[in-house]
Design goal:
Elements: E1 2-5, E2 20-23, E3 26-32, H1 46-63, E4 71-78, H2 84-97, E5 104-109, E6 119-126
Helix pairs in contact: 1-2
GO molecular function: deaminase activity
GO cellular component, one term: cytosol
Protein name: Reactive intermediate/imine deaminase
């Protein structure tokens, strides 16, 4: 069974896609960019952008009755791999704070991202 997931606690899609699709016990999240849902702003700082992206991912997980510990794969897109140490610090803390093991991951430098953000993260979650 396929369910479309849209959380009010994460930014609305800026294109023709869903925040996430759930198929049985698998949740596939679209790439999330750092739009703060309260202010609708995007901070300049890569640390703040990373934190907001992960917060938005967590909001979608919660709306789907999944948890951070259910994430099995992430893909990080960044416009500057020189920021990887900052990204890794926040990423690592996000999973540790949520008592989760680190998922499998890819990280790719890209030329540009929507709304000129510095980071986008997509993820896949699985629960038994």
């Amino acid at each position: 069974m396929k369910n479309i997931i849209n959380s009010e606690h994460a930014p609305k899609p800026i294109g023709p896609y869903s925040q996430a699709i759930q198929i049985n016990n698998i949740l596939i999240l679209s790439g999330q960019i750092p739009i703060d849902i309260i202010s609708n702003n995007i901070p300049e700082n890569i640390a703040e952008q990373t934190h907001i992206v992960l917060t938005n991912i967590k909001s979608i997980l919660i709306a789907s009755h999944f948890h951070v510990k259910d994430i099995v794969k992430t893909t990080i897109f960044t416009t500057d791999l020189k920021n990887i140490n900052i990204i890794n610090k926040i990423y690592m803390q996000f999973f540790i704070d949520n008592q989760s093991a680190f998922p499998a991951r890819s990280c790719v430098e890209v030329q540009a991202l929507p709304k000129n953000v510095k980071i986008e993260i997509e993820s896949i979650a699985f629960k038994k």
